[in-house]
């Protein structure tokens, strides 16, 4: 008879995975409440006052404010700030990823970036009167820091899950994020829409909502910090000099060596295109609904909430299907689904609320699934010990070209005078992503990534 000690590692991994989900829950509130819904209109109003536009709540104010010597239209200021944060992130994140890979304390990197980001996010509470400058700095810095925290967060996925578990873990985390962001958004929209009954003016209700998102982000980050473990760095390439010098050295080594992993590089480029299409659809949906389909604000708010909660189920559904058919195949099918949806969106009838909401449900299903599985699929294409840096490149691809889709959307509208051809033009991004996805060989990519990385 043989005796032994039971293997507790699967239980430890499961415990850490449950803790890991909470950071998706925590940071999604910032992206949903702040960046997607409430910040833009408030900034336009505040900057508009400074420019002399009065209290106009929309983006029609063409008067300008001075930003570092540049005269920018108040109505366009949120877009410019988002674009600046996006471009800055594309340069900052790879350096952060290199530092993360050289550290055995990824959870603390994630936490300090998150808490710093939440601090700057909380400063948005002071976006009032005609004082837009502090809010502009706060949203840019908090956006960059949020991206830095996600580099560590994604890298932790590799430490706490086996390859066969990644699709399930990533999908549940993403679903948890949609749920958390949706719950706080419901509360905040109720406060904003019912501000009179609460004895608040509308701007104060919006500012309190922005503050609540920062507190939510900081508070729920405590859970993964306390429950996750530190995992030692593995497969780190030797570099001389201090931490920053070693990080730059590792970054350049990875960029030079990326062509050695052609499948990984092909998927990154594919993700760059189809994710740009996804982000542009998210950005343009409310514009399309209000300006082209002439739907009321209440319908648009209902659609935002519907998408948030249906995407929760979509992420779980795709995760379950991926366990049987594989993440690559599900992402490919999801990309085809996106192509069909943007073509059908062109033909949505004016003022038809059920058709618009049905389109929102379909978008939510494929959105939740493709985003969650893209993260997990990329994780198995990363060379050992390079999770932080490769996920930084992944996030840089996500952010570095997210202006291309909106640029095409805007140009097509300017040329045609209609949002219908503008929305269907986005099919190009999904088509390019699909062509590249079909060239991805998952088995080859996993074999290449599993090989020992070359040491210097």
Summarize the structure.
The chain crosses the membrane at residues 21-44, 80-100, 112-128, 134-156, 176-198, 204-226, 265-287, 299-318, 330-349, 355-378, 390-413, 419-438. With 456 residues, the protein is mainly α. It contains 16 helices and 2 strands.
Overall description:
It is a multi-pass membrane protein. With 456 residues, the chain is mainly α. It has 2 domains: 23-234, Up-down Bundle (Growth Hormone, Chain: A); 257-451, MFS general substrate transporter like domains (Growth Hormone, Chain: A, Up-down Bundle), CATH 1.20.1250. Helices cover 75% and strands 2% of the residues. The chain has helices at 9-51, 77-101, 106-122, 133-160, 166-193, 202-227, 243-257, 262-292, 297-325, 327-345, 353-379, 387-400, 402-416, 419-424, 427-437, 442-450; strands at 64-67, 70-73. A two-stranded antiparallel ribbon has the order 1-2. Strand 1 (64-67) and strand 2 form a beta hairpin. The chain is globular and about 65 Å long. The termini are far apart. The model is unreliable at 452-456 (pLDDT under 50).
